[in-house]
Structure formats: structure tokens, C-alpha cells
Amino acid sequence: MIAMGLMEIAIFILVGKGIGVFNTLLLIILTSIIGITVAKKQGLQSVQNIRNSVSVGEPPGEAMIHTFLIFVGGILLVLPGFLTDLLGFLFVIPFTRKWFKPAIYLWLRKRMKNGQVFIIRR
Predict the structure, then answer these.
(1) Rounded to whole angstroms, how far apart are CA atoms 81 and 84?
(2) Most Cβ neighbours (<10 Å): which of 30, 41, 68, 85?
(3) Which candidate, 79, 69, 65, 70, places its Cα nearest to that of 44?
(4) Tens of pLDDT along the chain (122 residues)?
(5) In this structure, what is the dihedral angle of CA atoms 105, 108, 110, 112, given to the nearest 10 degrees?
(6) 10 burial via Cβ count (<10 Å: 0-12, 13-18, 19+)
């Protein structure tokens, strides 16, 4: 966390020197607004996909992972910083989101094996 904060500060300084402080602040605000808009649209669509899966009796596992990644991406996009914005956009954009799914599945499998996560079937 400390290293991430220091890297964000260093990038702020470099970008600020390159394009100016005011333009850097505008860029941070602009990326946050665009990110929030994209995350909201993708998030609503993902929640609808969960509803559709449940309504036809399919497990919503993949749709839930997409929703989780969009939610985390939205949080990262709200935080000021260029690295957090980049990671947030990667979580929100559909074709890059698939890069993170194997790691989430692995994490969930480990938690399920240890008994930390379990699935209730009705």
C-alpha cells in the first residue's frame, strides 16, 4: 500500500511537470468521471446478467465474478491516481476483465478448500 502511494505521488509529479498542475488535476477528474460512467453501465449490465442466469436456473458464478471485478474497478477509478485508474479500467473493460478471472477462480477454490468460502444450494 505504501509503495503504491509513493508510485502514485511520483507519477503525479512527473505528469504535473510535463503538462502542468492544473491539467494534471483535470486529467484525474476526467478519468474518474469516465471511469465511473463506464463502471455504472457495465455494473448494471452485469447485475442484469446475474438476474437472467438465476431466472433460467443457471448458476450465476461467472456473472458474479464479472460484477465483483466491475465493483472493484469502480472503486479504483474513484480513487485519485493514474495507476489505480489504469487497474480500474482493466477491471471494468470486458475484454481485459477476462485476464483476471483465472486468478479469482483460483482464489475462490483455495478458500473453498480451506472451508473459508462455501456455497449454499437451495
Answers:
(1) 5
(2) 85
(3) 70
(4) 788 889 988 998 999 999 998 999 999 888 888 888 888 888 888 888 888 888 888 877 788 888 888 888 888 888 888 899 889 889 988 888 888 888 888 888 888 788 776 666 66
(5) -130
(6) exposed
